[in-house]
């Protein structure tokens, strides 16, 4: 079970642009029906477009811009985004289960922060890798990285994601007085 993100931002932008165009055309049509001067004059727009030829710069630039915009929208639709829900290992069961990326990250961060000697933890999940940066107030941080790695790996054993990330731990400690 891998749930991918929805493409709401590109879809919203396209729908708002189309809605604006439709409102403009509908407003002009209603003004024409009422006998008033339209907001968008069809005669002016048609005469301006009829004066242009296919080999002029505005037509070429407009075509390139629209083609690029269309290509970007197609790429947004075709290319998969980062998974929102990460699958958990099925231990002989037919039940599909998953954990959200945000939930797994928060769980691993709180596990790292609970290790004795850690004053703060930041965690990022990337492709198959969990990078943990812990801060400590100890002047001697020997063994702290290994303790954090062990705690996170034990927690990953309990959660059992289908693809277990490699854990990388960095420790930031205050500078020692010399």
UniProtKB/TrEMBL annotation:
The chain crosses the membrane at residues 59-79. InterPro entries: DUF6286. Residues 68-171 form the DUF6286 domain. Keywords: Membrane, Transmembrane, Transmembrane helix. It holds the Pfam family DUF6286. It comes from the Bacteria. This is DUF6286 domain-containing protein. It comes from Amycolatopsis marina.
């Amino acid at each position: 079970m891998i749930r991918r993100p929805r493409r709401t931002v590109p879809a919203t932008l396209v729908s708002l642009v189309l809605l604006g165009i439709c409102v403009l055309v509908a407003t002009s049509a209603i003004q024409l029906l009422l006998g008033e001067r339209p907001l968008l004059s069809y005669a002016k727009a048609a005469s301006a477009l009829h004066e242009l030829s296919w080999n002029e710069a505005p037509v070429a630039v407009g075509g390139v811009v629209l083609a690029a915009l269309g290509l970007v929208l197609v790429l947004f639709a075709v290319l998969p985004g980062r998974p929102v829900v990460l699958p958990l290992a099925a231990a002989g069961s037919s039940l599909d289960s998953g954990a959200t990326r945000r939930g797994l990250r928060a769980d691993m961060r709180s596990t790292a922060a609970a290790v004795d000697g850690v004053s703060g933890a930041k965690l990022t999940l990337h492709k198959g890798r969990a990078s943990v940066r812990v801060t400590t107030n100890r002047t001697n941080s020997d063994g702290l990285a290994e303790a954090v790695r062990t705690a996170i790996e034990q927690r990953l054993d309990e959660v059992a994601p289908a693809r277990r990330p490699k854990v990388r731990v960095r420790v930031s400690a205050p500078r020692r007085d010399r």
